[in-house]
Specification:
This protein has helices spanning 17-20, 52-62, 74-88, 108-124, and strands at residues 41-42, 45-46, 92-94, 133-141, 144-154. A three-stranded mixed β-sheet has the order 3-4-5. The chain has a two-stranded antiparallel ribbon with strand order 1-2. By secondary structure, it is of the alpha+beta class.
């Protein structure tokens, strides 16, 4: 599918933080200097029209009358794991057990770094330190994928 990245939407006055919310208040970026325009390039909030298939999927979902939380299946978690591995390379992988358990790579030192980053983020965005923040670990050994839910917590 070819997508048109040349049509620009006018987002002013349409609840677009990237356009109307530029205040430099710690939540949003500061407005541009005089004579410059804001060019939002956030993945979730760009000035291009949404791809039609995404809009169609949202409309189809909203036709179902029940909304709320769902009970994620293993297939759901597996799809996230595969996506993270393919797109971001963040899944720890070992070819075989001779290289060690991939979960061991998330040791106390690495957990401390992750927790420090999470605490910084929570402070920066005024999220209460009592707010629970769960971290899962995904370990891939050969073709075996293991999800360790609740591996450690922050908050």
């Amino acid at each position: 599918m070819k997508y048109d990245f040349t049509s620009i939407l006018d987002r002013c006055g349409r609840d677009a933080i990237a356009v109307d919310g530029l205040k430099g208040d710690g939540f949003s970026p500061a407005p541009p200097k005089a004579g410059f325009d804001a060019i939002p390039m956030w993945v979730a909030d760009m000035n291009f029209p949404t791809v039609p298939t995404i809009q169609e999927a949202i409309i189809e979902r909203t036709n179902h009358p029940a909304f709320g939380y769902f009970n994620p299946t293993d297939e759901y978690f597996d799809s996230i794991i595969r996506w993270q591995a393919k797109r971001n390379g963040v899944v720890k992988y070992r070819r075989d057990e001779h290289e060690g358990d991939p979960a061991e790579a998330v040791d106390a030192r690495k957990q401390a770094r992750i927790l420090r980053t999470a605490r910084y983020y929570m402070t920066r965005y005024h999220i209460s330190e009592d707010t629970p923040c769960r971290f899962d670990v995904v370990a891939v050994l050969g073709s075996n994928v293991r999800l360790i839910r609740d591996a450690f917590w922050c908050g």
